[in-house]
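Fig. S4 source data, part A: sequence.
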Amino acid sequence: MKHLVLVAHGSRREASNEEVRMIAARLKSLAGTRYADVTAAFLELVEPSIPGAIQCCVERGAREVVVLPYFLSQGRHVATDIPEQVQPKQAEHPQVQITIAPYLGSAEEGIAAILLQLAQ
């Protein structure tokens, strides 16, 4: 069973966190049977945390968890903080394959097209 965890920063503004949850729900709908579940997780300020979300996936029977950083650039959070939160869960659950997908901003061509569309 493969699960997807969409990771955002987390905000004190609950409406922002709800937007991330709504995107995760939309991803789940679009993914069909590709993922058994899609959930949102947050780097800080909001639950579930990244380790908490991974743990929930494992408890629901995940054999593979893909962590998808919802960040536009490869700053400290993408390069360091997210891997530092994923690594202990991988060590705790060696039977589960946990991978970190490329961050959103690495899809440069697609991001540029979306930005041009929004600017119209």
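Fig. S4 source data, part B ends here. The first helix runs from residue 14 to 31.
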